[in-house]
């Protein structure tokens, strides 16, 4: 995998930044497009649904992984 890429956004009225591998950002961008929502809206919904003990970066990686797993099940 490549180096981490940092993105900044506003969540719940405050600025935050998240660093992920580019491959995860690609999947998350695709998820937002498929759901016809902005990237910020997608991240806000994933942030709201994550357990409080799970860091946002981990929640985003898990969401991307689950999205890909669902897609592979549909292909088989």
Automatic annotation (TrEMBL):
Swiss-Prot/TrEMBL keywords: Transferase
Domain Ribbon-helix-helix as annotated: residue spans: 5-68
GO function terms (MF aspect): transferase activity
Transmembrane segments: none
Name under which the protein is recorded: Aryl-sulfate sulfotransferase
Protein's organism: Gluconobacter aidae
């Amino acid at each position: 995998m490549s180096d981490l890429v940092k993105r900044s956004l506003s969540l719940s009225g405050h600025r935050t930044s998240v660093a992920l591998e580019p491959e995860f950002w690609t999947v998350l961008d695709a998820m937002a497009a498929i759901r016809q929502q902005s990237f910020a809206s997608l991240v806000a919904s994933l942030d709201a649904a994550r357990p409080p003990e799970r860091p946002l970066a981990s929640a985003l990686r898990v969401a991307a992984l689950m999205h890909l797993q669902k897609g592979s099940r549909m292909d088989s």
